[in-house]
Amino acid sequence: MLIDAAARLEPEALRCPFPAYAELREAGVTWVAPANAYLVTRAEDVDTVLRDTEAFSSRNAIGAPPIPADSELARHVPFLLLSDEPEHAQRRKLVQRAFTPSRLNKFEPRIRELSTGLVESWRGRTEVEFMADFAVPLPITVITTVLGLPVEETAELRRLSEELAGTVGHAGTDPAEIIRIATEFGALLAPSLDAAATAESEDTVLQTIAAAGLDRQDATRFVMELLLAGNITTTDHLGNSMVLLAGDPELADRLRAEPARLATFIEESLRLESPIQGLFRMATRDTEVGGTPIPAGSRLQVMYAAANRDPGFVDRPDDLDLDRARASSHPGC
Question: pLDDT tens digits for 284-311?
Answer without folding.
Answer: 999 999 999 999 999 999 999 999 999 9
